[in-house]
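Lab notebook, bench 4. Still working through the backlog of constructs that have no structural model yet. Next entry is a single chain of 131 residues. Request: give me the structure tokens for it.
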Amino acid sequence: METKQNKSKEYMRPMPTNWWLKRTNYLLFIVRETTCVFVGLYAIYLLILAMLRDEPDSFAAWLQSPTLIVLQIVALPFLLFHSITWINLTPKVLVVWRGEERVPPSLIAAAHFGGWLIVSLIIFWIAFQYG
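Model written out:
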């Protein structure tokens, strides 16, 4: 039986599986993309909490579960890394002009970090007021 061969003369450069270990920027990219797993797990955790809020016994048991406490402790640095790197990327995506001048990228990132801080403080205030 004949095998079908690629008749084009395109050069297909081999890509090693560890290409992302060769440069720090590549490694940070892969780490940031991997943090999406923790973002997703934490979103599922919050959805389950929202579903259990009407059942006080289940809600308390869920909050005190050692497995979920460990998940939150492990997820926090990943979630922070994910958030910080995405906010740092914002000036590359969001180019703002004020008249003829471009707003400095550092100002755009600082505004997003400030917004993140304000929203976080509001959430903490609400949590401690009604918690």
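Notes after review: The longest helix spans residues 24-52. The radius of gyration is 23 Å. Flag for follow-up if needed.
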